[in-house]
Structures are given as C-alpha cells and as structure tokens.
C-alpha cells in the first residue's frame, strides 16, 4: 500500500482578467504517492504548470487545500513555505534559473547552506558528490553563462536535491534542452526516483512522460485522465510509448 | 513620431527614474538659483547702500592733532582728488551692552541730516533719521550683531569723561563701517552729547585712545584712473596722509570685508552644489547604462524592426533631458519664495539691507551647462547601443553585458547573507562605480565642512593657523614694564598654568608706501612660521604669505616700514599666516617697531593649559583687585561669535541634509535598477527557500558595503584635499594654510550618517522584493 505524501482537495486557481475571473484550476483533487514518478500532461494552457506551482507552494491556490505532513500549505506563512522549500521540497524549472553570479558549485551549495541542521563541510561534500553524479563536477567553478543548457539543467537538478527533499517538483525540465541533454536529465531523474525519490513532473514531451509510473492528464483545469504504468525500463520503452500514445489519443491530446 | 511614442511609453514604464532625475535636477536648480540670488542680493544691497550714502573712496581716521590743516590742504590740492571732507569725532575704546563688550576702535560723531535709518525688519531703508535727543544713539547693525544687542537696549560707552549710558534709538545705514566683519565702528550721538563729550575729550592727551579724533573722507576726481587702493598708496607717498592716521580704508576694501561672509558661505555651498551636479550626471549615466543592460533584448528587437542606433540614442536623450528641463523649471519656480525669505539672511553681518536680485544669466549658464554636460554624457554612454546586435540580443547573449568580473568572494554558510551581498557587489563592480564615486563625493564634502566646524572651535587648530587664542585678556592703562608682566603672570599661575603669554597689539604702518596692518608682538616667535624663521633682531619682520604674493616678495627681501613720517628698512625672515585684515598683515617685534617710533602699550593675552570658566573668572577678579590701577582684566570671548558659529552650523546642516537627501534619491534609483536587473535571481533565491526578510537584508547589506567602500574613498580624499580646498575657499579671509583638524568624529559622523542612510534607504527600497513571485520563473 503506497503512502500519500501530498494531497490536494478541491484545489482552485483563478485570475482576475478584464473585470472577470479566469478559472485555471477547478476543484482538483489529487494525491501524490511516496516514491512515485508522477507526470502531469496536458495541452498548452490546460493548467498543468499552475497545478504544479500550487501543489509545491510556489504559488497560492485561490481555494482548496494542499496537505503535506498534516499541514495545509495553502495556509502556510511565507516563512513556513520558505522553510519547506529548503527542507522538504526541491524544484527544477524549465529555464534552469541558476543564480547568474554564483558558480555551479555555489548554486548548489547555497541552497544547502540554508538548511541550518547540516554543517557547511557536509553540504560542500554533498554538493561535490551531486555534481559528480550529474557529470558536471569538472565545470563546477564555471558561471552558469559559461556552460551549456544541459549542464545548467543538471546543476539545477543537483541544487533541487541538495537538501534530500521528500518531493522533487519539475516543471518541463527538458523543455529548453536538445535531444542529448534531454535524455541525460531524464536519466538523472529516473535514477533519483529509483533510489526512492518522489518526483512530480509537468511535461508535454512524450519521451519524458515515459519515465513515469503514473501519468495524469489535465484539461480545462481538471484531471480528466490517469494512467498507471510499471516502473520504467529502457528495454520496454517502445511498448510503453505505444501504450501511452494510445491513452493520450483517447484523451484527444 | 515613433520616437515620441516610445518616449511616452518609456516615461510611463519608468516613472521612478524619470521622477528621480526630475527631483535631483530640481534640487540643483533650486539651490543654484537661491544661493546665487541671495549672494547677488547681498552684494547689490551693499552697492546700493554706498550709492545712497555717497560714501567716499577713501576714509582715514586720526587723532585730532595729526590731521593738520596743512595735510588736509595737501590731499585736497592733489589733482587726483575731487574733494575732501573732514568730520570731527570723539574716540571711544569700549562699549558694553548686556554681557557683551566691544573693544575695537569706535568713533562718535554727530548724527547728520543725511543719516539714514533702517526699517525695524532690516529689509529696507526707512528714510532720514530723526534728530537725536540727549542720551540717544544710532548704531549700525554690525555693532548690534557684535554685541548681541537690539534697538531699545542700553549701551555704556567708555569715554574720557567716564562711562556714559545711552539708549539705542535706531539702526543707521553705515555701509563703510557697519558690517560686523569690520572692527572699526561709527556711532551717531546727539549734538548736545557731542558737545559735552568733546569738551571733556579736548583735555585728553593728544594720542589718547579716548581723545578727540578726525575723519578724513577723500573723493577721487572723475578723471583719476587709479583704483582706490592705488590712489591711497600714491596719495600716501605724496602726502603721508595714511602714515599719520590710526587707520584708513578704501571703499573696495570695505565692500570686500562687508561681503566676505556671504561670499564665503555661498561659495562653499556653491562648490557643494557643483559636486551634487556632478552626482546628477553620474546617476543619469548609471541609470542609462543599466537601462541598456536590462533592455538589451528590447533594443535588439527595436533594431530588428528598423530602429537605428541614432533613434535609440535620441530616445535616451529625450527622456533624460526632458526630466532635467522639467526639474530645472520647477526648481527655479520653487526658489522664488526661498529667495524672498532668504535674500536678507546676511543683513546681520553686512548691516545693509539686501536688494533682491536674480542673476538670471549666471543661473541660465549653470543650468544650461548641467543640461549640456548631461547631453554629452548621455551621448557617450549610449555608444553601447551601437554594439547591440539584434540576433545576439534575441538569442540571449546576456553574459557579455551582465557581469564584468569573475572575482569570487567566498560564500560562507555562517555569514550567508553578507557573503552573498559581497558577491553581488564584486561580481558587478562596474555597476557600482558611479555609486562609489557619489558616496565618496558626499563623504568628502561632509568631512570638509566638519573639519571647518571642528577647526574653528578648536583652540589648538586655530593657534596653529596663526590665530591668537587666549582665556584671559589684559588691557593696560598705560605702558607696562617687563616686571609688571612677570607679576601678572605670577598671579595668574596661582590659579592655572599658563601655556602661552602673548603681549601684542595691532597698528597700521606704511609697508613699501602702502598702509598695512602690523601685528606687534613682544615675542614674535610665539606664532608658527610657515617658511623661513621668526624675527630675532630689531631689523627683521615676517609677513603673511598673502603679502608675499601680493607684493611679489620673498624671504630675504627688504621692505620699508614707516609710521608717522619715520621710515626704516627691514629684512623679511619668514612667512606666517595672519588672520587680521584678511591676511594683509605683517608680524613685527615690539623692539623692531620702536625703530619707527611705535611705543603703544601691549595688550596681554594668556592662553591657559586648562580652560575652566570658573577659574578664569577667579583669575580676572584677582587681577583686577591686585592690579586694578594699571590694568583691566577680562575673560576672553568665545572662540567664534554667535553669527559665525550659527552660519557655519547652518552650512554644516545644509550640507548634511542635502547629502542625506541625495543618498535617498541615489539609493532609490540605483536599488530600483538593481532590483529590475536581479528580479529573476530574487525569484530563484525565493524558490530555493530564502525568505523575503533575508533577501532584503542581503540587498541592504550590499549597499552598506558600497557605502563603506565609498566612504573610505571619500575619507582618503578628504585627508588629502579638504585642506587644499579650504585654503582656496578661505584665502579671502587670509587663510592660506588651513590646518585640517581631523579627529575621530570628523570621520565617524559623516561616514556613519551616509552608511546608515544607504543601509536604511536600501532596506526600505528592497521592500519591492515582496512583490517578486516565484511564479514569474515559469515559462508558459
């Protein structure tokens, strides 16, 4: 029996526009299971990124609740959310968003430094290990502008997991990458997940979605489809793709 | 049309920097207009007063017997002289009003029919003064300023006939001697009082300081091409008329002394405003530079659409010059009420009402200069626009413009916020160069004005600059012997240790034919010599550096000193700084002065090791009790008078307030730009778990670092340049070697104020960090 790590109930998000309200999310109910690699898919403007940001506490939902560790993160104060970000949640952006005047190593380490419970030496050691794991340790003293997009994204993954988060959120992490870099980053996420890391990723890339063991489809602000898959194996990629493709087609993707 | 559309959009979008440039220019325009107008009003007021009173070109004052009919005739008959006027007077040596005393030369004359009276508000001339009754006097405003008195108050004048009490009936217009900057004062008394006092004074010894006197007024002939100073020298060489006088003054000298104070105060403030002007240009350049960086892509897109570099540069020129013109216009408009209120601000010193004037041409030149300089700077800084390539901009070639340094200040876990702040500074140093320069300039000026204020209130600093500073003053009733001096010193030392005992007086001599003040010292070696050595023999003198320059003399040259017709040659052995008569002065020993017949009593001034008001008073009481028959002792006045002190404090306050104001605007502009540039980074920090409060502290800490470095630069600059700058500004009062009295507070106060201002203001501006949402990082 899988443990629910994050749970959303009646989640709504709307924006004021031209005097009226535009509803992006409409009463979404959702559970995220520990150790799952969950992918959210949907057409452009369907609300998938909005859902990810609302679930991760990066943005506040208009209504509803997101329960994590028995607490509603929608009602959390900014300081509590900040703490959650450097203890329990990790985040990967589509555009990498590394701090431009910090080296790759510092980008990773600074996030680790925020966690007061770990000594600086331990943070530095872990940062080195992660950068090694992400195959960017040879360029760790470079500034983000001096390395490729793929290298930046690998560094961003290392930053996201420096504090060993309970949940790793990823918003189109391969959206800005070429084929080779996309594969590298997806392999990293798959490897993390196989080590027990819970991952929630938004993507519209079929290849990325294949890495998940659970795919949710969102349309018109609601989850309108769900597909469960066995854990990813590169050898079964073809048959997995056929299955997912058929499912998506049935949802008029 | 397309430029106009973009210009309107730019102003709408960047209201903050547009308004900031307006505010900065407004402050400059308002200050320049106000200061120049106040200065001009004071100067015009003096000129107008001289016209109104038809003042002579030269005035000389005499003991009555020295101005013989023969001498008057000689002067009168000189072809360069149109007419002369002789006025009878009575000399007085002391005036007491409340707690204040005045001990400089005073002449009492009958109030004439043309004596003009000032309005009570001091802002204009009331008309001809009514005839005085017995016991009433008219005095100049300068006299009241020196004695902290007012109309209606009683004043005691010491005359040959004893102490006489008068009531100040009104303030008369006295452009020649009225200023509080001039030691010589004229008091108008009633005909009856004059007759009575003159009868008593006629019994006095001929050279008595309270005897009868005469004033000679000389009017230059219309065809005389000499300046008044040249005429005075030539006339003296021809007739010896100033050799016989107590002292003389030309109209230019009087105007120079009268306007000295407003000119110096306004000059200091104007130099400060000019530096602020430089700051406005630095801020503008910085603002544009950042704008080009942050809108790199936009400009690339504009270029891709067909906008050429000139159109983009015109856009910047239009945006910033428009803000400056608006600021200048509002500044000038706001200055009008300020000029109205402030034009008469110096009347207590100049003693003549200001005539409100606005030097429009000068103001227009300065403001046009500001705008022209800005235009050139904008033109130069926007050269960057030429380098923007549409393709590179659109493809996000940010690295070339964003970071100028790879200097890696380490990031520490323990000091995470400060170390990140330091990194933000070191990785983009170029972005803060302008701010550093601005801080340095502000701190430099704040320190300079603090040095000025500290020095004029520091006994040791004033002494080292050639000023005689003492706690106890002794006026001899007759010439004292060396043994009298010893006895007095011994009595003083019963209460306190004497650091220096000066025996000195000032008197006018002829110096190579020109009347010049001589400071006669029993021991001239007490004054610090700037060059050469102190005089040791009776044929040696030292002179001020100003006289060395003016007469093109050098140490080792010989000069002729004369008095009352007797002349001797003296060797110049050194140069000193003397503050009397705005530095046009020489130092001579009493022994050397005797060679030209100078035999006046010397005043005693005692500088004590410890200044204790209670003990000082005890010393004075003891001296008066024991030696009352030969001397009159008194406690010295404060180091500086109230008016000068207030003016310098006001100047300090203005400079401090303006510096804080400028810090506020500069911080607002620079922080806002930094915020725009770093918005994404702030979002990233938030996404990784940084709290808004921590990011705000980090932001403020960076500006604290900038302000500390800038302050250090300003401090160093001040150590090297403040003295030199004050020498230039204060040369007109005789200071050529300003002793920069730098103490801990000289650094600490300005630096603390600037650093705190930067810290607080940047923390306030960083409130915008709250508005950054992590959602902004999402690419839809």
What can you tell me about this protein's structure?
The complex is a heterodimer of chains A (253) and B (780). Chain A has 253 residues and is α/β, with parallel strands linked by helices. Chain A has a domain at 97-164. Chain A is 36% helix and 27% strand. In chain A, the strands form two sheets. Chain A has a six-stranded mixed beta sheet with strand order 6-7-8-3-9-10, with helices on both faces. In chain A, α4 crosses α5 (149-161) and α5 (149-161) runs parallel beside α6 (179-194). The longest helix of chain A is centred in the last third of the chain and has 16 residues, at 179-194. The mean pLDDT of chain A is 90. Chain B folds into three domains: 54-257, no CATH class; 403-457 and 640-780, no CATH class; 466-635, no CATH class. Chain B is built from 23 helices and 23 strands. In chain B, α1 (2-13) crosses α9 (309-342), α2 packs antiparallel against α7 (251-294) and α22 runs antiparallel to α23. With 780 residues, chain B is an alpha+beta fold. In chain B, the strands form three sheets. Chain B has an eleven-stranded mixed beta sheet. A six-stranded mixed beta barrel of chain B has the order 15-16-21-18-20-19. Chain B has a two-stranded antiparallel sheet with strand order 6-7. Residues 397-403 of chain B have low confidence and may be disordered. In chain B, 45% of the residues are buried. Chain B is elongated. Classes of the chains: A alpha/beta (253), B alpha+beta (780). The A-B interface holds A 44-45, 49, 53, 58-59, 78-79, 82-87, 91, 93-95, 97-103, 106, 109-111, 113-114, 119-120, 123, 141, 143, 145-146, 159, 171-172, 175-176 and B 398-399, 402-403, 406, 408, 411-414, 416, 420, 423-424, 427-428, 680-681, 683-693, 773-775, 777-780.
Summarize the structure.
Chain A is 36% helix and 27% strand. Chain A has helices at 48-56, 78-87, 104-113, 120-133, 149-161, 179-194, 206-209, 237-250; strands spanning 4-17, 20-33, 37-42, 63-68, 71-72, 89-92, 167-171, 198-202, 214-219, 222-228. In chain B, strands 4-3-9-10-8-11-5-2-12-1-13 form an 11-stranded mixed sheet.
């Amino acid at each position: 029996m899988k443990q629910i790590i994050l749970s959303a109930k009646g989640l709504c998000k709307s924006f004021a526009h031209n005097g009226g309200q535009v509803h992006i999310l409409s009463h979404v109910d959702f559970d995220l299971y520990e150790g799952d690699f969950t992918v959210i898919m949907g057409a452009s403007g369907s609300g998938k990124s909005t859902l990810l940001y609302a679930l991760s506490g990066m943005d506040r939902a208009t209504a509803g609740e997101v329960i994590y560790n028995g607490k509603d993160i929608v009602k959390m104060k900014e300081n509590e959310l900040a703490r959650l970000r450097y203890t329990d949640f990790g985040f990967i952006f589509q555009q990498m968003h590394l701090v431009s005047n910090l080296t790759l190593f510092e980008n990773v380490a600074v996030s680790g430094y925020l966690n007061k419970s770990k000594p600086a030496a331990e943070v530095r050691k872990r940062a080195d290990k992660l950068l090694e794991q992400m195959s960017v340790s040879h360029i760790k003293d470079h500034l983000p502008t001096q390395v490729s997009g793929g290298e930046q994204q690998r560094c961003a993954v290392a930053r996201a997991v420096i504090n060993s988060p309970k949940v790793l959120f990823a918003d189109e992490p391969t959206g800005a990458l070429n084929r080779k870099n996309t594969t590298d980053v997806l392999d990293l996420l798959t490897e993390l997940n196989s080590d027990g890391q819970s991952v929630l990723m938004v993507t519209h890339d079929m290849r990325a979605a294949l890495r998940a063991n659970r795919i949710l489809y969102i349309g018109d602000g609601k989850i309108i489809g769900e597909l469960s898959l066995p854990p990813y194996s590169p050898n079964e990629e073809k048959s997995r793709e056929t299955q997912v493709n058929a499912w998506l087609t049935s949802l008029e993707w | 049309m397309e430029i106009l559309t973009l210009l309107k959009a730019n102003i709408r979008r960047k209201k903050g920097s547009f308004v900031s440039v307006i505010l900065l220019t407004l402050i400059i325009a308002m200050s320049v207009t106000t200061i120049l107008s106040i200065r001009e009003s004071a100067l015009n007021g003096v000129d107008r007063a001289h016209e109104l009173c038809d003042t002579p070109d030269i005035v000389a004052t005499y003991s009555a017997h020295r101005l013989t009919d023969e001498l008057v005739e000689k002067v009168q008959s000189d072809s360069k002289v149109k007419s002369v006027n002789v006025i009878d007077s009575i000399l007085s040596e002391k005036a007491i009003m409340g707690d204040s005393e005045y001990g400089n030369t005073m002449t009492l004359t009958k109030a004439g029919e043309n004596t003009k009276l000032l309005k009570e508000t001091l802002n204009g001339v009331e008309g001809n003064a009514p005839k005085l009754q017995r016991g009433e006097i008219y005095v100049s405003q300068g006299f009241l300023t020196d004695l902290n008195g007012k109309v209606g108050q009683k004043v005691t004048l010491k005359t040959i006939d004893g102490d006489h009490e008068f009531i100040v009936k009104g303030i008369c217009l006295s452009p020649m001697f009225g200023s509080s900057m001039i030691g010589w004062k004229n008091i108008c008394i009633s005909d009856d009082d004059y007759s009575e006092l003159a009868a008593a004074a006629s019994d006095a010894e001929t050279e008595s300081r309270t005897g009868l006197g005469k004033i000679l007024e000389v009017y230059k002939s219309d065809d005389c091409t000499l300046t008044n100073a040249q005429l005075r020298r030539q006339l003296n060489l021809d007739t010896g008329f100033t050799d016989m006088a107590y002292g003389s003054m030309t109209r230019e000298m009087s105007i120079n002394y009268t306007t000295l104070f407003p000119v110096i105060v306004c000059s200091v403030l104007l130099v400060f405003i000019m530096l602020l002007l430089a700051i406005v240009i630095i801020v503008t350049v910085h603002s544009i530079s950042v704008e080009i960086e942050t809108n790199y892509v936009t400009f690339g897109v504009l270029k891709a659409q067909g906008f050429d570099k000139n159109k983009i540069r015109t856009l910047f020129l239009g945006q910033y010059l428009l803000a400056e013109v608006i600021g200048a216009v509002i500044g000038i408009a706001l200055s009008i009420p300020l000029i109205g209120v402030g034009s008469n601000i110096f009347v207590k010193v100049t003693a003549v009402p200001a005539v409100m004037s606005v030097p429009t041409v000068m103001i227009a030149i300065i403001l046009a200069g500001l705008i022209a300089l800005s235009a050139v700077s904008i033109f130069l800084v926007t050269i960057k626009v030429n380098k923007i390539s549409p393709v590179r901009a659109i493809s996000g070639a940010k690295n070339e413009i964003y970071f100028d340094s790879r200097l890696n200040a380490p990031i520490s876990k323990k000091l995470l916020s400060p170390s990140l702040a330091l990194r933000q500074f070191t990785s983009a140093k170029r972005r803060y160069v302008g701010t550093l320069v601005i801080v340095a300039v502000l701190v430099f000026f704040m320190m300079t004005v603090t040095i000025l204020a500290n020095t004029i209130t520091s006994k040791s600093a004033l002494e080292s600059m050639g000023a005689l500073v003492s706690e106890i003053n002794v006026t001899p009733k007759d010439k004292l012997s060396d043994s009298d001096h010893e006895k007095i010193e011994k009595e003083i030392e019963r209460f306190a240790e004497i650091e220096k005992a000066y025996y000195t007086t000032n008197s006018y001599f002829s110096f190579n034919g020109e009347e010049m003040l001589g400071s006669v010292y029993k021991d001239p070696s007490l004054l610090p010599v700037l060059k050469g050595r102190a005089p040791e023999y009776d044929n040696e003198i030292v002179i001020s550096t100003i006289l060395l320059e003016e007469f093109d003399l050098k140490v080792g040259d010989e000069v002729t000193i004369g008095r009352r017709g007797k002349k001797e040659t003296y060797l110049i052995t050194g140069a000193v700084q003397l503050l009397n008569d705005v530095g046009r002065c020489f130092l001579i020993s009493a022994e050397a002065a005797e060679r030209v017949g100078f035999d006046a009593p010397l005043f005693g001034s005692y500088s004590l090791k410890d200044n204790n008001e209670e003990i000082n008073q005890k010393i004075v009481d003891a001296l008066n009790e024991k030696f009352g028959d030969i001397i009159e002792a008194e406690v010295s006045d404060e180091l500086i008078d109230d008016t000068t002190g207030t003016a310098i404090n006001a100047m300090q306050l203005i400079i401090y307030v303006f510096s804080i104001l400028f810090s506020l605007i500069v911080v607002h502009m620079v922080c806002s730009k930094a915020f725009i540039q770093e918005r994404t980074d702030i979002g990233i920090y938030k996404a990784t778990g940084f709290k808004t409060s921590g990011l705000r502290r980090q932001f403020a800490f960076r500006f604290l670092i900038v302000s500390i470095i800038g302050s250090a630069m300003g401090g160093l600059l001040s150590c090297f340049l403040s003295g030199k700058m004050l020498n230039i500004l204060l040369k007109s009062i005789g200071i050529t070697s300003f002793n920069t009295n730098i103490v801990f507070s000289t650094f600490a106060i300005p630096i603390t104020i600037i650093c705190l201002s930067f810290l607080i203001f940047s923390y306030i501006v960083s409130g915008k960090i709250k508005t950054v949402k992590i959602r902004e990082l999402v690419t839809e």
